Amino acid sequence: MAGGSLGAIFGSEISVRLSESFTNFGLELFAFSSSILLFLAILLARYIVNTNNSIVLVERVGGGWSDAISNIITMKDVRSIAIYSWLFTSLMTIQWISAIPIIEAYSDLSPDRIELFARIEQLVSPLTLFTQLFLTYFVISFFGISSILMIYGLLFIIVFLLYGLLPSVGIVVFAQALLRVFEYGFNKPSREIIYSQLKKGDRYKSTVFIDTFITRFGDLSGSIFMGIGKIASIGISFMPIIAIPFAALFSLTGYKISKNFVNNSKEL
Predict the structure, then answer these.
(1) Average pLDDT, stretch 22-42?
(2) Taking Cα atoms as reference points, which of 107, 109, 121, 113 lies closest to residue 5?
(3) What is the pLDDT of residues 176-226, one digit of tens each?
(4) Distance CA 82, CA 76 (A)
(5) Which of 234, 245, 193, 243 is nearest to 93 (CA)?
(6) Which CATH class name applies to 2-267?
(7) Which strand (E) or helix (H) includes residue 47?
(8) Structural domain spans, the chain
(9) What is the 3-state secondary structure (H, E, C) of 58-101?
């Protein structure tokens, strides 16, 4: 996760450097830079695969391709984590779409908006990196997984209230810093600890399926929620207020997950 934060810092700096080029070249230089980085990532992935015996990995995990789907249907713990991840990405998408008109009101010029996004990233990523390196272990140890999983929903409620009542660029910056630092510094590590209680095959297959399909479905769900509000002619600044009950459900789901985790730990 710390490596991901370093990548975000590097990528945001590239965006700042290229922001002025958007007027004349559009996304061409952005796409070219991204393609180079993606190509390097592919080379690195090939190296990692070639230096590991994939046959041994398959034999150790075992099972079939559909295990990840069947786990969500049949295993209560996995199903709860999947619902939690779905709610998280849905809520994050709602808050981000709610922030778009605030950013658009900041400036009519695309280069200015691109630079603002990059500057937000340059603020959030170092904070996240510092948290991951120096605070994650101590905060999780002190507050416990249960508190962290439940607090996240409360943070969304605070952000949604601010978006609905006091929309501004400062609130967008605050929301991004608060939610993303908490997610990558505390919440995701807590979810990984929850995953560690699963059997090896269930752990590997369920995490991949949840972190790809379920989270992307959450993005889609959040977009549909905002789209329904637009069709119903509900002001976009009011949509975060309507989403508050889902944030409360998010906290409740986190409580149930942590409760099951405690029970499973006692059994172990």
Answers:
(1) 86
(2) 121
(3) 999 989 998 999 999 888 888 887 777 778 888 998 899 999 999 999 999
(4) 10
(5) 243
(6) mainly alpha
(7) helix 28-50
(8) 2-267
(9) HHHHCCCCCHHHHHHHHCHHHHHHHHHHHHHHHHHHHHHHHHHH
CB 145 within 8 A of CB 196: no
Position 171: which residue type? I
Give 89-138 pLDDT, tens digit per residue: 999 999 999 999 998 888 887 888 878 888 888 888 888 889 988 999 99
CA 216 to chain centroid: 10
Instruction: Please name the residue that has the structure tokens 């009011």.
Output: 238
Q: With H, G, I as helix, E, B as strand and everything else as coil, classify residue 25.
A: helix
Side chain identity, residue 108: D
Q: Which two tokens stand for residue 78?
A: 């996995």
* DSSP secondary structure, 195-246, as one string: HTTS-HHHHHHHHHHIIIIIHHHHHHHHHHHHHHHHHTT--TTTHHHHTHHH
The CA distance from 197 to 183, in Å, is 20
Question: What's the CA gap between 244 and 161, in Å, rounded?
Answer: 8
Query: Cα(first)–Cα(last) distance of the chain, in Å?
Result: 28
Q: What angle separates helix 244-267 from helix 76-106, to the nearest 10 degrees?
A: 150
Both tokens assigned to 185: 């510094």
Looking at residue 175, the DSSP 8-state letter turns out to be H
